From TrEMBL, chain A:
<dbReference type="InterPro" id="IPR005651">
    <property type="entry name" value="Trm112-like"/>
</dbReference>
<dbReference type="Pfam" id="PF03966">
    <property type="entry name" value="Trm112p"/>
</dbReference>
<protein>
    <recommendedName>
        <fullName>Trm112 family protein</fullName>
    </recommendedName>
</protein>
From TrEMBL, chain B:
<dbReference type="GO" id="GO:0032259">
    <property type="term" value="P:methylation"/>
</dbReference>
<protein>
    <submittedName>
        <fullName>Modification methylase HemK</fullName>
    </submittedName>
</protein>
<dbReference type="InterPro" id="IPR002052">
    <property type="entry name" value="DNA_methylase_N6_adenine_CS"/>
</dbReference>
<keyword id="KW-0808">Transferase</keyword>
<dbReference type="InterPro" id="IPR029063">
    <property type="entry name" value="SAM-dependent_MTases_sf"/>
</dbReference>
<keyword id="KW-0949">S-adenosyl-L-methionine</keyword>
<dbReference type="Pfam" id="PF05175">
    <property type="entry name" value="MTS"/>
</dbReference>
<dbReference type="InterPro" id="IPR052190">
    <property type="entry name" value="Euk-Arch_PrmC-MTase"/>
</dbReference>
<dbReference type="GO" id="GO:0035657">
    <property type="term" value="C:eRF1 methyltransferase complex"/>
</dbReference>
Length: 60, 196
């Protein structure tokens, strides 16, 4: 995902802001990492450049 | 892997993902009519990313898409679509950000016996009357749409076109059918809804 996607991402539970933590990126985008919601104390993974915003119980 | 070439886009098709059909082509053509350079566009349930790819290939727009099916999300990403894996609008800020929101919903009336196993069911299952997901979309969409923004949705005569138009009207949309085509047992239509 491109970093400017942060402008429109929100926690799916509380709709609050998220903190981006980058594990791997290239010149274009973030490939893996997490998005953290401090209100819900929940991490949403970024894998293969796709942020996974499903609540934890719906993830595979 | 199969690739579909259409209107300057080359779209790869993966397994366990809804394969672009008449409805996808009709919606892509209609979306191109509505999208203008510079707009912010969101596609809900992008599947392979076919519609998004066609619009991106022909317009200078800022496009984001959502998708719940993991196989489809990966497929759309490989087709160059900025995809978020989420249930409809769940992972997106509740701000009136988009000029256009496009949706090819699961619009087929589906009984319990007709459900498809696995993630692909999300592409077909419109509930008993075909409008279950459309109702949720219409209820949520305006909080993501700019004033005077437009929604573009694909439905079938099996979904009850007049009922969907009435639903949109009740939620503040002026409706207009902008594309239609007859298939074997149904008519497919694209409805434009202008928020006012």
């Amino acid at each position: 995902m491109k970093k400017d996607l942060m402008e429109i991402l929100a926690c799916p539970v509380c709709k609050g802001d998220l903190v981006l933590n980058i594990e791997k990126e290239d010149e274009k985008e973030v490939i893996s990492g997490t998005l953290y919601c401090s209100v819900c104390n929940e991490y949403y993974p970024i894998e293969e450049g796709i942020p996974n915003m499903l609540p934890p119980d719906l993830r595979e | 892997m199969v690739t579909i070439n259409y209107r300057n886009a080359a779209v790869k098709i993966a397994e366990s993902v809804y394969e672009p059909a008449e409805d996808s082509f009709l919606l892509a053509d209609a979306a191109l009519e509505v999208c203008i350079d510079g707009m912010k566009v969101l596609e809900i349930g992008t599947g392979t990313g076919f519609v998004a790819s066609v619009v991106q290939a022909n317009r200078n727009i800022e496009l984001t898409a959502t998708e719940i099916n993991p196989h489809a999300a990966l497929c759309a990403k490989s087709n160059g679509v900025a995809v978020i894996r989420t249930d409809m609008f769940a992972g997106i800020i509740k701000e009136r950000h988009f000029d256009i929101i496009i949706f090819n919903p699961p619009y087929l009336p589906t009984s319990d016996e007709e459900k498809v196993p696995g993630w692909l069911n999300y592409a077909f299952d419109g509930g008993k009357d075909g409008r279950k997901v459309i109702i949720r979309f219409i209820e949520e969409v305006s909080s993501h749409l700019k004033e005077e923004g437009t929604i573009v949705i694909m439905i079938s005569s099996l979904t009850d076109i007049e009922e969907v138009k009435a639903l949109m009207y009740r939620h503040g949309f002026k409706t207009r059918i902008i594309a239609r085509t007859k298939c074997s047992f149904e008519e497919l239509v694209v409805i434009e809804g202008k928020f006012s």
